[in-house]
Amino acid sequence: MDGMEAALEEARKAMVEGEVPVGAALLRGEEILWADHNRREQRQDPTAHAEMLCLREGAGQLGSWRLEECTLYVTLEPCPMCAGAMVMSRLGKCVWGAADPEKGCCGSVYDLPADPALHSDTRWTAGEREKECAALLEAFFQGRRREKDGETSGEAGK
Fold this sequence. Notes:
This protein is α/β, with parallel strands linked by helices. 42% of the residues lie in helices and 19% in strands. The chain contains five helices and five strands; from the N terminus they run αββααβαββα. It has helices at residues 3-16, 40-43, 50-62, 80-88, 130-156; strands spanning 23-28, 31-37, 70-76, 93-98, 123-126. Strand 3 (70-76), helix 4 (80-88) and strand 4 (93-98) form a beta-alpha-beta unit. It is globular.
């Protein structure tokens, strides 16, 4: 299984669990060190993004916070926290799927990795399996809107 397929599998798990469907997989070469998905609701932890969980677990397995030899695949463009953690971990490469026009910090809202003040060597690739990644998010949020509309219309009839 390749990195983005593992990340998509994790995103699907997140959707089933009621989490925003973002998945990530950290690889060293062809070896998947860790794959995970958003767990903010489950853990009530604002830092429990898929990317952060993969970086923590991967560093623990490697016994080093330096992840120069690793590639992180993620289904959604990283937010400022995750992009910053990737730069600080000296991640070798990040490959992401769908752009995040609201919070994305790898080119959409801001391009944190390109900020010369950070001296980042992390390589970034955008748009891998973009449509598939975006479709999961779209389905999730459409479902949320339907639930909300159902609650609103149900309350109006009372």
